[in-house]
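lol forgot to send this yesterday, sorry. struct tokens for the thing we talked abt
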């Protein structure tokens, strides 16, 4: 029924509905008892943090930290909020989110729409469940030139530091003009070295990960690997959305009508898995890899882990399959991996 309406409006409606229902005692108890899978075999110690299971929610779903207290009741062990920018911004003009149902995919050009870091921090101060790990995905405002991007990342890093368990540097979204230029070797190294320097100045450091695009060449991936080793970054999230349309089965006319944006879901599955496999083969076991992209059942979840991911995240699969997907994955992993 929800799929009959505009995806972004449905998203906001669903958030309001879940906020009310998941704080109702009877519903809260039922949801937690049904969806959560507790098994010692699912526990993971990654990034120096204790995860109850390897399944998390990717950034972009709870951008403004509105539901980070409620969503873990569906069985997620970690929630990544954001992408957060220093100043609030509207993002790109609507309509900017599109379902491609026959491909179990989404196309979005949201453009880092968010309420700004100050609002997000106020909400994170109301964190109830300390057992759930929270990641902070940070980016730059659209109006900030790339030469000054480090200042935006620094602001978000400092403001969120006391309220999240790990950080993700997002330079791979295709929906902010020129943002992906920061993935080039020298700008990326400079940005990450700056953040690592800030991290070392803190009494207790937090893990910092880099979120990369699935459209990088092998040469660019090798540059990323070199930078990670040089900066001693904690890990990588592989991958963001793709600008490649070849995985879609809809007509070229329909694609042209939708316009620009990043593709997520089933069409990006193989790309992200191959990148995970390549990164793991080159980096060994010391660097953490969080796998995301096209996970829509227990088998594609296991595929990411077998390729080398320590943890996995859901987004588009969660939209199409609902919260039962989290339960199915955790039950399967508890018995098979």
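and heres what i got for the seq, position by position
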């Amino acid at each position: 029924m929800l799929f009959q309406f505009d995806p972004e409006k449905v998203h906001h409606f669903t958030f309001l509905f879940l906020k009310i229902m998941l704080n109702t005692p009877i519903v809260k108890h039922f949801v937690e008892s049904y969806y959560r899978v507790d098994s010692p075999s699912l526990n993971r110690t990654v990034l120096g943090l204790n995860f109850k299971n390897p399944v998390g929610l990717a950034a972009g779903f709870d951008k403004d930290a509105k539901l980070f207290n409620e969503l873990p009741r569906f069985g997620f062990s970690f929630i990544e909020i954001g992408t957060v920018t220093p100043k609030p911004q509207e993002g790109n003009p609507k309509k900017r989110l599109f379902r491609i149902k026959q491909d179990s995919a989404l196309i979005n050009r949201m453009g880092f729409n968010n309420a700004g870091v100050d609002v997000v921090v106020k909400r994170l101060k109301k964190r109830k469940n300390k057992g759930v790990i929270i990641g902070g995905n940070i980016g730059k405002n659209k109006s900030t030139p790339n030469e000054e991007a480090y200042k935006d990342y620094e602001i978000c890093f400092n403001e969120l530091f006391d309220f999240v368990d790990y950080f993700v540097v997002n330079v791979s979204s295709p929906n902010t003009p020129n943002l992906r230029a920061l993935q080039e070797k020298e700008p990326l190294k400079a940005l990450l070295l700056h953040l690592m320097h800030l991290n070392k100045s803190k009494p207790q450091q937090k893990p910092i990960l880099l979120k990369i695009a699935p459209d990088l060449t092998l040469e660019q991936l090798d540059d990323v690997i070199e930078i990670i080793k040089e900066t001693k970054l904690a890990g990588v999230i592989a991958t963001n959305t793709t600008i490649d349309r070849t995985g879609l089965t809809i007509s070229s006319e329909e694609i042209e009508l939708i316009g620009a944006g990043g593709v997520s879901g089933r069409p990006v599955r193989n790309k992200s898995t191959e990148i995970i496999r390549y990164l793991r083969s080159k980096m060994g076991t010391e660097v953490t890899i969080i796998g995301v992209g096209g996970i829509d059942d227990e088998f594609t979840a296991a595929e990411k882990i077998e390729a080398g991911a320590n943890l996995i995240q859901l987004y588009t699969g969660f939209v199409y399959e609902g919260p039962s997907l989290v339960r199915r994955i955790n039950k399967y992993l508890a018995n098979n991996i």
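The two ends are 36 Å apart (CA to CA). anyway ping me if u want another try
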